[in-house]
Design goal:
41% of the residues lie in helices and 24% in strands. It is built from nine helices and eleven strands. Bound molecules: 3-hydroxy-5-(hydroxymethyl)-2-methylisonicotinaldehyde.
Length: 279
């Protein structure tokens, strides 16, 4: 039977991120992708002025109640950027319901980067994200998000392998059996991900070359590709490799084109090849 993922994130109408990347990427991997939109924004909040924002919190419970009447099953529930602590609480209830039926709970605590929370968020929101991560099977923070949830200082570029491995194990101690930390770099020209699996106490790394600049939405592309691979039963090392390569190639195309990176990166040109991985 075809698998279904439910993904809970905002719709940023322009500026490829959240649902506008999760839906095509997970679908391309042959997985039915059902959505629970948490808000509609004219653009994402990173680098645009004057964006509109319509909160959809009041729609979450009625939508989920209707799904209950359908006994809607899901192989995984995947959350990304969320709007408020109230939404985090509603999502905790959704996690409880879907965990009971064996769905994989996948949390990208999308809320910060480069040592800073995104505009609109504060420490209470970060701790709410920590509570959602505690309920998850697999989480995908970057180093900023990891340190916020563990209430540690942000290390900047000043860390080593021992630091990363302690961060991974400390995050797993919160609850999730697998942790994929993104934006890990031990040398100037290479960047990638570290994956911890508690069941075997093992850590896998995968790196690509680093491309200069800040590219919006790449965390969402990474998480969506990773989830698609995991739901298709890909082992964790291969899954982080697929997600790193897909994200890297998307950034490379956008860098080469000279397009403004606040509109996100060209992942679309790689979707055909990505889909072929799951034939
Ligand atoms: O890519 C994460 C993201 C998703 N949605 C919205 C955002 C951001 C990051 O800034 O603003 C609305």
């Amino acid at each position: 039977m075809q698998k279904r993922v439910i993904t809970i994130q905002d719709i940023s109408c322009v500026g490829r991120c959240s649902l506008t990347v999760a839906l095509p990427i997970i679908s391309a991997a042959g997985i039915e992708t059902s959505i629970l939109p948490t808000a509609i924004l004219s653009t994402h909040t990173g680098g645009f002025e004057g964006y509109t924002f319509r909160d959809l919190t009041d729609d979450i419970e009625p939508i989920v109640d209707h799904w209950k009447s359908l006994s809607l099953q899901a192989a995984a529930v995947y959350t990304g950027y969320l709007g408020s602590e109230h939404q985090q609480k509603l999502i905790a209830d959704i996690f409880t319901a879907y965990k009971a039926q064996g769905s994989l709970i996948f949390v990208d605590p999308a809320m910060a980067d480069n040592g800073q929370l995104y505009p609109a968020f504060d420490m209470d929101f970060a701790l709410g994200m920590r509570d959602l991560c505690a309920m998850a099977d697999l989480i995908v923070p970057n180093i900023t998000e990891a340190t916020l949830m563990l209430q540690r200082d942000y290390p900047g570029d000043d860390y080593d392998q021992e630091y990363i491995e302690d961060l991974l194990r400390s995050l797993s101690d919160l609850g999730p059996g697998q942790v994929v930390l993104t934006g890990v770099s031990f040398s100037f020209d290479r960047i990638g991900a570290a994956a911890y699996t508690r069941a075997t106490d093992s850590i896998d790394y995968y790196f690509t070359n680093r491309i200069d600049g800040y590219y919006h939405g790449t965390g969402d592309i990474y998480s969506s590709a990773l989830l698609a691979a995991i739901v298709n039963d890909t082992p964790i090392f291969d899954a982080i490799k697929i997600a790193c390569e897909f994200t890297f190639e998307s950034i490379k195309r956008t860098y080469a084109s000279g397009e403004d990176p606040k509109y996100g990166v060209d992942f679309e040109s790689g979707l055909g090849e990505f889909a072929g991985l799951f034939d």
